[in-house]
Amino acid sequence: MLKETKLKRYLRENNITQTELCNSIKLMCKSSLGNAVISKIVNGQKLNYHIDTLLKICVALNLTPNDIIEKDIFIQNQLK
After folding, report:
1. 3-class DSSP state for residue 72?
2. Would you call 5 helix, strand, or coil by DSSP?
3. Are 18 and 80 in contact (CB under 8 A)?
4. Distance (Å) of CA 17 to CA 36, 73, 74
5. What is the pTM of this model?
6. How far apart are CA 21 and CA 61, in angstroms?
């Protein structure tokens, strides 16, 4: 598990709670992600998730996928 994901760092630096992220996704994407899913992604417990999920987070936070995905961790896992 990561110490701090890019997403967690972004939320912390911008004083955005996971609940606020969930609410923003509901508002902007007209669909929702569960609090448990958001928590696992934010805390690095879930690194492999659907592109739809990634894009919902990006839309809600006005970010790009590169701002969120953990490319280095993915590459390390592929080399194992």
Report:
1. helix
2. coil
3. no
4. 13, 24, 26
5. 0.86
6. 8
